[in-house]
Design brief:
GO molecular function: histone deacetylase activity; hydrolase activity
EC number: 3.5.1.-
Number of domains: 1
CATH topology: Arginase, Chain A
Protein name: Histone deacetylase-like amidohydrolase
Strand content: 5-15%
Number of helices: 9
Radius of gyration: 18 Å
InterPro entries: HDACs, His_deacetylse_dom, His_deacetylse_dom_sf, Ureohydrolase_dom_sf
CATH class: Alpha Beta
CATH superfamily: Histone deacetylase domain
Largest sheet: 7 strands, parallel
Number of strands: 9
GO biological process, one term: epigenetic regulation of gene expression
Length: about 325
C-alpha cells in the first residue's frame, strides 16, 4: 500500500503572493479528492521532527534564527525565502512527515509513501535557508534512515533546480548516493557534472546538468541509465525522491519543456530501482512546481503510478 502525508497545517506557512504559496497544495489535494486517489491511500498521523533529528544535519544557529524570525512575526530568511509566524512549526511538521514515512516503510508497514509537504527542502543548507526552503526534508529523512540502522540510501532529485542543500549535506558521505537531474546553467548555480563528492564520498554524488532545449526522451533515458548505474554500485536499502515538478513546460519559474507523462516515466524508473535493490521501499517528498493546476495533475499522475504498483504487487502475491 501507499502512505500519503498531508495536513492542512501546511497551508499556514503564509508566504503571501510568493510563488511557493498555499494554493499549490490546495489545488493538489482538491485534484486528488476529485480523482479518488486520496481514498486509496493510508493517511498516517505523525509528529513534527525533533530538534535532534534536525540538528543531525543543520547547525544550531539556523534553528535559532528560524525560531526567532517566526516568533517576531516573520520576514525574509534570505532574499527568496519567506517566513511567517507559523513557518518554523510547519517546517518541522514537513520534515517529520518524511521521517515518519521512512520509519513506516523500513518497518514494512508499506512499500511506498508520498509526502505532500511545504515548505520544500532541497536548497536548505546546513547553516541557512535558501530558495524557498527552510529545512532539508529529504536530507533529514535520509540521515534518519541511517540512524535507524540502514547502511545505504539513494536520493534521486528531478526538480528543475539543483538540490544544492542535499548535496552539501552528503558530499563526503559514502552511505548516501545523491543523483540530481536539473536545468543548467540555472539557479542556484551549482550542479555541474564535475561535482562528484569528496573524501570518502567521492563518486557517490552524480549531477546530470541539462541545457534548455534538450529533448524529453534524452533526459528520461539519461536519468534512467545513470540511476541504474549508481544504484547497482550503491545497492541502496531505501530510495528517497526529491520530487519536484517544475521542469514542466508550463511552469513559470523552471521548465525544461517536460510534459506530465514524463514524470510518470521517471516514477517508473525510481520504482524499478527500488524493486531491484530494496524490496520496493521508496519515499517521495514534494519539492517544486509553481503552476498549481499543472502541479496538481503531475502529482496525481505520480501518485497513480505508485498506486498502480500497489495493485500489481497484490495481483502477484494475493496472500
Amino acid at each position: 500500500m501507499t502512505l500519503l502525508y498531508y495536513s492542512p497545517h501546511f497551508l499556514q506557512h503564509d508566504t503571501g503572493g510568493h510563488p511557493e504559496r498555499p494554493q499549490r497544495l490546495e489545488q493538489v489535494i482538491g485534484r486528488l479528492e476529485r480523482g479518488g486517489q486520496l481514498a486509496r491511500c493510508v493517511r498516517p498521523d505523525w509528529r513534527p521532527a525533533t530538534d535532534d533529528q534536525v540538528l543531525s544535519l543543520h547547525e544550531p544557529q539556523h534553528l535559532t534564527t528560524l525560531r526567532t524570525l517566526a516568533a517576531a512575526g516573520g520576514g525574509r530568511a534570505e532574499v527568496d525565502t519567506v517566513v511567517s509566524p507559523a513557518s518554523f512549526e510547519v517546517a518541522l511538521l514537513a520534515a517529520g512527515a518524511a521521517c515518519d514515512a521512512v520509519d513506516r516503510v523500513i518497518r514494512g508497514e508499506a512499500s511506498r509513501a508520498l509526502c505532500l509537504v511545504r515548505p520544500p527542502g532541497h536548497h536548505a543548507l546546513p547553516g541557512g535557508a535558501m530558495g524557498f526552503c527552510l529545512l532539508g526534508n529529504v536530507a533529514i529523512a535520509a540521515e534518519h534512515a541511517l540512524q535507524l540502522g540502514l547502511d545505504r540510501v539513494l536520493i534521486i532529485d528531478w526538480d528543475v533546480h539543483h538540490g544544492n542543500g542535499t548535496q552539501a549535506m552528503f558530499y563526503e558521505n559514502p552511505r548516501v548516493g545523491f543523483l540530481s537531474m536539473h536545468r543548467y546553467p540555472f539557479y542556484p548555480g551549482t550542479g555541474s557534472a564535475d561535482e562528484t563528492g569528496s573524501g570518502d564520498g567521492l563518486g557517490w554524488n552524480v549531477n546530470l546538468p541539462v541545457a534548455m532545449g534538450v529533448s524529453r526522451d534524452r533526459c528520461t533515458s539519461w536519468l534512467g541509465r545513470e540511476v541504474e548505474t549508481l544504484a547497482d554500485k550503491l545497492r541502496p536499502q531505501l530510495v528517497l525522491l526529491s520530487c519536484g515538478f517544475d521542469a514542466h513546460r508550463e511552469d513559470p519559474i523552471g521548465s525544461l519543456g517536460w510534459e506530465t507523462e514524463d514524470f510518470s516515466t521517471l516514477t517508473q524508473i525510481a520504482m524499478d530501482v527500488a524493486a531491484t535493490h530494496c524490496d520496493g521501499r521508496l519515499v517521495s517528498v514534494l519539492e517544486g512546481g509553481y503552476n498549481p493546476p499543472v502541479l496538481a495533475d503531475a502529482v496525481a499522475t505520480h501518485l497513480d503510478d505508485l498506486l498502480e504498483r500497489d495493485a500489481d504487487e497484490r495481483l502477484a502475491d494475493p496472500a
